[in-house]
Amino acid sequence: MPSFRFKDHKTQQLSQSVGEVLSRNYSESEFFEFAPYDPTAGERGGYSNYSYWGSTLRSFAQNKVAMFFLILMVGILAFTVVEPMLPYAPEANTIYKGATNLAPCKEYWFGTNSIGQDLWSQIWSGVRTSLLIGLAVACVEAVLGVIMGVLWGYVRKLDFLFTEIYNIFDNVPQTLVVIIISYILRPGVSTMIFAMCLTSWLQTARLVRNQVLIIRDRDYNLASRCLGTTTWRIMVKNLLPYLVSILTLRMALAIPAAIGNEVFITYIGLGVPLEIPTLGNLIKAGQTVMMESTLSYQLFFPVIILSIITISFYIVGNSFADAADPKNHVK
């Protein structure tokens, strides 16, 4: 059926002299012309330029506090990587004779410890080791959590098996598992990562499973399957946006939690050996001299760096999780 539209110049004329138009008789051709016909216009009627990741980033960028901690966190991570490459950077385990327990000065920015090691290089080397543990645990937790959670939520036959596994291991404190594994195996970075990864993925899997159960049978997913959409595309387009906020929050919390576990296990003497700098080893060494006011800096600096890292990850992770939730997007 042909469609019509007002001619531009006649539209202005109508708006200026309605009374005159009503008093005279005009032909249709003076006011109307054929509108162009596009057969694909109907298919594009429901098109929206909404972008999930674009909306997520815009929402996150509006949070000034999160942006500040993101810049701070990125700066710390970048400096941790490039610090060994700087020309003045000393070796972490270098012992300087006659330089024991020196307060912070121009030569030793964070001072030295009781055996003459530079705390500046010790702390940044410890940050690298602790972040390696935290990132490794977070990545394993995310990958295993997503895979097991999707299987747990989609394959009904596996529901009983995964539920029993979860109930058994969830009632055993993770710290106790890490202590037992560290005691049985040889202490080291790989042992810490292995011990933490054994049960850390269970919480992520449970959250993913619950989310999959909620959204897998919604109308748009049923419609997608009826239209022949592949399972992979449904997962990426329909389910993944609702899982990103959960995964982001879990990874953001897993990194400081893993660092905190490493600090605690090392503090009780079952963690990484003393010759490997970690934040746990540095805090443990600083605790032995914390009662002496002139040596309290040996505990103060590692604790400050640890606090900045954990707080930054927590705030950035929570803010990005909120921004990644499609329900918070303005389309």
Could you characterize what this model shows?
This protein is mostly helical and 331 residues long. 65% of the residues lie in helices and 2% in strands. It has 13 helices and two strands; from the N terminus they run βαααβαααααααααα. It has a two-stranded antiparallel sheet. Helix 4 crosses helix 13 and helix 11 packs antiparallel against helix 13.
Topology:
Blueprint: E1 4-6, H1 8-16, H2 18-23, H3 28-31, E2 32-34, H4 52-61, H5 64-82, H6 119-154, H7 159-170, H8 174-184, H9 189-215, H10 219-226, H11 231-267, H12 279-287, H13 297-324
Antiparallel strand pairs: 1-2
Features:
single chain; two-stranded antiparallel sheet; mainly alpha; 65% helix
End-to-end separation in angstroms reads 33 Å
Structural class: mainly alpha
Quaternary state reads: single chain
Average pLDDT across residues? 77
Q: What count of helical segments does DSSP give?
A: 13
Major sheet, described briefly?
A: 2 strands, antiparallel
Helix and strand string, N-terminal first? EHHHEHHHHHHHHHH
Number of strands: 2
Q: Radius of gyration, rounded?
A: 31 Å
State which percent range the strand residues make up.
under 5%
User: What is the approximate shape?
Assistant: flat
Q: Which stretches of 5+ consecutive residues score pLDDT under 50? A: none
Record the strand order, biggest sheet: 1-2
> How much helicity do the residues have?
55-70%
Brief summary of the model shown:
The protein has helices spanning 8-16, 18-23, 28-31, 52-61, 64-82, 119-154, 159-170, 174-184, 189-215, 219-226, 231-267, 279-287, 297-324; strands at 4-6, 32-34. The protein is mostly helical. The protein is flat.
